Every structure is written in C-alpha cells, then in structure tokens.
Amino acid sequence: MISVDKNVPAASGVYGLSNASQWIYVGETANIHAELFNHLQHPNTFLREHIPSGFTYELSSEEYRAERRNQLVSELQPIGNRLVAGLSNWP
C-alpha cells in the first residue's frame, strides 16, 4: 500500500491488479488512488483468494474510462472480470 500512496495519483483513469501468473481485475474510476487503496486495504472475498502482487494504472478522462477498461478487459482477460461479470457487489 505504500507504493500506492507514493506512486498513484488521485485522478481519473483505469487500473489493473495482477499477480505473477495472471491479470486479476481491471477497473475504472474517478480516483485511481482511492480505488486501489480500497481494494488492497479492504479486499473482497475474491481478492483474498487471488492476492494481487502488482498494479498498474493509466490516466483517462471520464468520457473514455469505460471504453478503455472494456478494451483492456477484452485484451487481458482478467479472471476477476470474467467471474464477476454481471454481479453488482464488485466495486
């Protein structure tokens, strides 16, 4: 979480969580810093089972965030996005 505090802006964009073998989740938000910090400090059941060891982010305006997230989900096939597709309890 120290890395998030030091390296991630409180800005609009998309982000990805991964471990050594796979992409876990790709999301979009108005505040990348807060969203990543929340995922890592208060992991849901899925993130407790698939523990992320890394993250990445890309700044993006609000109007393009969802489109970019969808593009990355299609390209990277993160396990979390596939498993929780259609569920409303995922952040």
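^ that was protein a. below is b, sequence first then the tokens
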Amino acid sequence: MFLVFLLLWIILNGRVTAEILILGCAFSAAFYWFTRKYLGRTAEDEKKWLRSIPHMAKYLAVLVYEIFKANFDVIRLILSPSTEVEPRLVHLRTDLKTDGKRALLANSITLTPGTITVRLKGQHLQVHCLDCSLAEGLGESSFVRLLREMEDAE
C-alpha cells in the first residue's frame, strides 16, 4: 500500500522532483501507518489485494469492452427507424457472496449504456433495460462470471 500511496502522490503532483519524492515518502508512510493501525489492515490483506490485481485488470478490460459494445447497440436502436424499442424491467438474483462484489456488479450494469440498476437489495437486483435485447443473458453475463472468479480467488 505504501507504493500505491506514493504513486498516487506523484500522479496528483504531476511532476517528480526531490522535494515531491521526499514529501511523498513521508506522507505515504504516514498513510500506510494509519491504515495498519486504525483501519486494521494486515500484511495478509495486502497480499490478497496484490493477488487480485490481475483479476481486477481483466474485469476492467471486459467492462470497457462491454461499454463499447453496448454503445453500438444503443446507437443501432436509436438510428434504426424500423426497430421498435421495448423497455424492460428485469429482476435478477445473483449468487455473489460479498456486498462489495454485488455493488460492483450493479455499478457495472449501470455504467453499460442502455441498462440501469434500479435497486440492489441483498442478492436481488432490479435492472431497467432500454430494450429487451439488452436484457438477454444479463444474469449470466461476463461481469457475473468474472466477479465469481474474483471471489473464488480470495
């Protein structure tokens, strides 16, 4: 985490000088100490976080791909005069175990054009889809599969 804090410090400063590095090391050490002492972070937590980086990178790549794909689907719906839009409200039940992963799924669905997560309560999601074609396979999407893999890896 120390390196993450230092990298964030450097990015937010926008340049690298001796003073920025020295201050960044001092502040990063203080933030790192704070997270260990008051937020209960342990070395095992950090190892788990580091092991999850490849999964998070893969998830981010799939999210960006799905956003682009959904953009083209929505453009096709808008520009096609013969296609009649059929909005749907879909109820999904997910088997994801953690609240964080369920929230990530809900936010990913909302970030994807044409779909909005209206409600997340426990393991149940209520999703509004611009068209019924966007609702197909939502319960077993690549988001759900990757989030399951992330949970299994933890």
